Amino acid sequence: MPPSRRKFLGAAAASAVLTAQEKRGLKIFMHWDMEGSSGIFTREQAWYWENGVREQVAAGARELFTADVNSASAAALEAGVTELIVCDTHHGGGNLLREKLLQDRRITYLYRSVGVEDGKRRWMPGLDQTVAGLMLPGHHAKASTERAFLPHAWNHEWLDFTINGQSVGEIGIETCYAGHWDVPLIFVQGDEAACHEARQQFLGVVTAAVKQGGANPELCAGLDPASAHRETARRITEAIEKLRAGMMRPYKPTLPMTITLRMRTMDAAAKAAQRPGVLRLDDHTVEARVGRQADVVKWLLGTGLDMAP
After folding, report:
1. Which domains does the chain show, CATH number per domain?
2. From 23, 218, 222, 239, which residue has the greatest number of CB atoms within 10 Å?
3. Nearest Cα residue to 9 out of 202, 167, 179
4. Closest CA to 297 of 180, 137, 203
């Protein structure tokens, strides 16, 4: 294993995943983005809220996204999941067509990525120690990835985000957050670049590549929705089987984590450096040390646990 990969995995092999869940059932958190979802091949479809997007394109994209969520949810339940949390995180949420969602008592839908739990605001409510595995369907590669469809970081001002020296995208950030509760990443769906990124950083994760990028990052090609649904379902079944077999491990970086963030502009770096505990390394880069995995972005955005009202 290359040193960089060994470094990023850290203590990931330290603890097993399935304990009480083996007796009570299998609870999965399915955290959706849209750039990597089936049938979404253009910027106009994926970022349909932008000025100038045609109304019919926006409506069609939401239909495709909802159908992808339904297909993947059905596959997870068929594979033995007994409780499924489906969270819409794309652009903060609000993309799913609620009236067309699969209705099943085992599914809980979160229509926004931030909600209220135990009277407090938090990111990804319901993600805790009772969850057996994290799935990240519809995801994209990190910023500046070649031949990727709409590669970007959490914020378009961000050029590179590192955890203990390893560059990560949203896949890595969300996996780090889940690792706070020892929840492993078990599945990623997206373009070939996003799936490659996930496999390089998280040993054993199962991926479903439903599209491939090219020279133009705002366009891609891929499987038709029906074929993509079948491939995704097959890979979800594989991921659940590996989880049940004890082959998945949570990401547990060395704590405290050193996080660096390279910004697109000097002004953005200067603003970030004003936050408590943030050090400015150069004109475009800031650094912070974080004691909890759940605070992976809270130090900068305030997003995580116990968020401000």
Report:
1. 19-148+171-251 (3.40.50.10780)
2. 239
3. 202
4. 180
